[in-house]
Amino acid sequence: MAGRPEEPDSQSISIAQLLRILRDRKWVIIALTLVGLAAGAAHFLQATPQYRATAMILLETASLDRALFGTQVFDVNDGSRALTSAANLIKLDQVAQEVRQELGSRRSLSSLKQMITTKPNSSANTVEIRGEGSDADEVALVANTFARQFILYRQRADRAVLANARAELEAQLESLTPGDLASTRGQTLSQKVEELTVLESMQTGGWEVVQEAVVPPTPFNLHPLRDAGVGLVLGLALGLMLASLLNLLDRRIKDEERFERELGAPVIARIPMVGWRWRRAKRRAPVSVGFQEQSANTLEAFRMLRSNLKYFEVGRNINSVLLTSSLPNEGKSVTAINLSLSLAMSGARVVLLEADLRRPVLSFYLGLDGRRGFTDLLAGTSTVNDVAQIVEVTRFLPERNGGNAGVKGNGHRDRMSAARDLVCVPAGPIPPNPAELLAMPRTGEVLRELRAICDYIVVDAAPLLLVSDALEISKEVDGVLLVARWGLTRVDDARRTRRSLERVGVKPLGLVVTGMAGEESRYRRYGGYYGEA
Hints:
22 helices, alpha/beta
């Protein structure tokens, strides 16, 4: 049979897939969300409170010297440039030095300058002087002192310019003779000296404080709700990103449609996860075998599998079924046992044949003697009567179902009648060449002998991807059931399994998906409806 092209490994996410990602990775998302929330809370708790206070100075536009003398000594032609220049000059070392002296501060000049920021506002002809720090009183005091000392600095600078001009004129007057002093030139120089003296005393520096900084009542950097919200959102975003990345890298199949697509067969049974032991890949646990009270809800799943198998019998005779899987630990042996028990409970005569001649486990699960079995039949050293062992079915049934376990009637007789309807042929001694042994014509002869004494043969075969044993015996049975494990079977393994079966022309009857979380509660919810065997 020609292999069909592989399905594209599409990463487009539907709503159902998104919900599955959220369900499967919920602890990753919750953990990172909590980490983000904790980080936001830690930022709030560890942050040092910071305070902010703002003083404002105004560039003067009115001029007394123009009003008194008809001229303006310091004319501002470009107001925007003057504001920018003032914003820079406020942080001069000379200004900072005066601030430190006035405050009596032990801070360095650079530390004082780092406490303030300046911002010119050309539309209002103002410059904001903003103080920031961990001490509310200090930031207000520093902002006001910088504003005041800057104005004094500009005042001293303007007065110095006028004082120099006055000194030059006075020097010229001293060089004049009494006659020259009485002349028009002398009188003009004397008048200018007097005007400069008046102007020098009137200089304000061209700036005035229009708003003093006040002590801030609360810090500006502490926002517990904002910090918690930001941490929560960032944590949630990281959680969703990590969950999406893990889903992208995760090759395990956790979607029923993906199982059907990759393995090329429909899902005909969903087996619920039995406790936590089914999640421990390397641990074999007898508690997952049978339908005892602690795992009774699995019975409904196997009833559904049993019913689906009978559906396949319509139009064809299926009385021998082989169960295999891609790799070990996917639940094929447990599924084979429980399917056999379910068939026996319906009144059928069942032979459970162990064809996994490499790692046989049925004798362990069922408490049988595994020293003789299938290999003895293949070698011709024993007969069916020599190796077949009756399984006490009642050991594996829930007590409340004992009354309807048999074919008819009720009570102890029916339970014993069910016990006579399940026979197991264990693997027997492990041979050195299992594949060659199963490929011999004797395998078909043994199966024909077993068909003559039962209604169904359930064959537990070795995993497909490790050895070819299952492919050899698949030619001798009426149908093949693939067992896959929810959240364990990988995409690449499923594709290899499908190709292996297609190469020998085997079309599986269907898939049995084991270990499905949530299925147990679903069957329990409708347990009363499924009360009959």
